[in-house]
Design goal:
- The strands form 3 sheets. Strands 4-5-12-9-10-11 form a 6-stranded mixed β-sheet, with helices on both faces. Strands 2-1-3 form a 3-stranded antiparallel β-sheet.
- The radius of gyration is 22 Å and the shape is globular.
- By secondary structure, the protein is an alpha/beta fold.
- The protein has helices at residues 46-55, 77-82, 96-102, 122-136, 148-160, 174-182, 194-208, 218-223, 226-235, 252-266, 287-294, 319-329, 338-352, 358-372, 410-427; strands spanning 12-16, 23-25, 41-44, 92-94, 107-111, 140-144, 163-168, 186-189, 243-247, 276-282, 332-336, 382-386.
- It has a domain at 92-119 and 223-396: Rossmann fold.
- The chain is built from 15 helices and 12 strands.
- It is 40% helix and 13% strand.
- The longest helix has 18 residues, at 410-427.
- Strand 6, helix 5 and strand 7 (163-168) form a beta-alpha-beta unit.
- Helix 3 packs across helix 13, helix 10 crosses helix 12 (319-329) and helix 11 packs across helix 12.
- The N and C termini lie far apart (57 Å).
- The structure holds pyridoxal-5'-phosphate and zinc ion.
Length: 431
């Protein structure tokens, strides 16, 4: 079977439910299993993917989210040309200064705080969702968002020429909603938390026929997260890290990291089965971590109360998949307080010069706990995923001491500089 155009093609074969084995054709627009209501997953023909990988050398492929096109569910070349060409392949940074602080000799940061176009990991998942929307020939897209899905939808829809509608819950970071509006999206704030807004948006999707990136297009949305796993392993020279630490909310990212790692091994690109998965949650919203710690199979929904608004999902749809990912890989699940989250943000900033949002602070805080508890060896290769950008969340950041305005005069400024120097010397990290 020779592909029609000169590029690798998707090897997706259909929609499946892992719980009940329900099998639907890829052309079906169903997002949830008609039997059990769980989100459907995408199945692939891995033999065909293997062949295609031999046929189309990686060197000739674009360094964007479509690089391993075989393992994504999008077939339309036009859709791939209009979405995601400049997304993905964020830097994998050797975090030597953060590593020295934590006693880790081989630490990397996968820096999705620089993701194009909207500065969070959500560019990956929204790209595959909007590409699917374009394949369906639709011209409007909705989403329900804790913050970053909204900005990703607003940006990606604008570039693709479709109309975005964003539904936010009652607690949101103002800069994210403002950014959506500045990007031209219609933004509606709903008087409920994320889980309540999500529930109503599901009904709204049904009644209005509006496609929602993270509801009706969810199987396609979720697949975009696998690109994170593909890139990390490629950027390490087709070697999986020993440990991956990632913040978890609804569970899409962590569960698809797991799926992506398995697929890389299945198609023969890398050995990945030894990679352990550690998930990070805020103490004010840790339903997945709590279930894992308690050894439960079921997740008990919670009512979120945390500064990490991106992670404030009390009813995580993919939570059961995350439990499986962490258990089968032999990882851990840890929660940290808001105070620890801000300390994590500050530590990453001071050591690596990366300003992340509270979700990234959660990851760093959990990494610190794992390192201090000796759960990660000094020599292990560790990747901490930084999923979002702190320039969007400065409104929530505790203010640092700020000097009062001084005269615009060199002597006055000299005395301030002297103060700065002694304070900085006292705080300097011993690196
Ligand atoms: C959405 C999000 C996550 C993780 O979300 P999942 O729902 O678990 O995929 C992590 N960090 C940031 C910044 C996010 O926006
Ligand atoms: Zn099912």
């Amino acid at each position: 079977m020779t592909p029609a155009t000169g590029a690798a093609q998707s090897c997706a074969t259909g929609l499946v439910c892992h719980r009940c084995g329900v099998d639907l054709p890829l052309t079906d627009v169903e997002a949830f299993c008609p039997e059990c209501g769980k989100c459907l997953d995408i199945a692939y023909d891995y033999e065909r993917a293997k062949q295609s990988l031999r046929e189309w050398p990686l060197d000739d492929r674009p360094a964007n989210i479509w690089r391993l096109a075989e393992l994504l569910p999008i077939t339309g070349e036009d859709a791939k040309a209009r979405v995601g060409r400049f997304s993905g392949f964020t830097p994998l940074i050797q975090a030597d200064r953060l590593g020295a602080e934590l006693g880790l000799g081989n630490l990397y940061v996968k820096d999705d705080s620089t993701s194009r176009p909207s500065l969070s990991y959500k560019d990956r998942v929204v790209s595959t969702a909007v590409a699917r929307l374009l394949e369906l020939g639709d011209e409007e897209i909705g989403c329900v968002s804790t913050g970053n899905v909204g900005t990703a939808v607003a940006s990606i829809a604008a570039k693709a020429g479709v109309t975005p509608f964003v539904f936010y819950p009652n607690r949101l970071e103002p800069a994210k909603a403002k950014a959506c509006r500045a990007l031209g999206a219609r933004v509606c704030q709903v008087a409920g938390n994320y889980d309540e807004a999500n529930r109503e948006c599901r009904k709204l999707a049904q009644e209005s026929g509006l496609q929602f990136a993270n509801i009706t297009l969810r199987p396609f949305y979720a697949e975009g997260a696998k690109t994170m796993a593909f890139e990390i392993v490629e950027q390490l020279g087709w070697r999986a890290p020993d440990h991956i630490v990632s913040a978890t909310a609804g569970g899409t990212l962590s569960s698809r990291l797991h799926k992506g790692l398995i697929e890389l091994e299945t198609v023969g690109l890398a050995r990945t089965s030894e990679a352990k998965m550690h998930i990070a949650q805020p103490a004010g919203c840790s339903p997945i971590a709590s279930a894992i710690e308690a050894g439960d199979e079921e997740i008990h929904p919670c009512s979120p109360e945390t500064v990490a608004h991106s992670l404030a999902i009390g009813t995580p749809g993919d939570g059961y998949l995350v439990i499986d990912a962490v258990r089968s890989r032999g990882g851990t699940a840890t929660s940290v307080s808001d105070e620890e989250i801000f300390a994590g943000i500050d530590l990453l900033a001071a050591t690596e010069g990366i300003l992340t949002e509270p979700a990234g602070g959660t990851t760093v805080a959990v990494l610190r706990k794992l390192a201090e508890a000796g759960k990660i060896d000094r020599d292990a290769t560790v990747v901490a995923i930084i999923t979002g950008n702190g320039y969007k969340t400065l409104d929530d950041h505790p203010e640092k001491p700020w000097p009062s305005m001084v005269e615009c005069d060199v002597d006055a400024m000299m005395s301030v500089l002297d103060e700065f120097r002694s304070a900085a010397a006292a705080e300097k990290l011993p690196l």
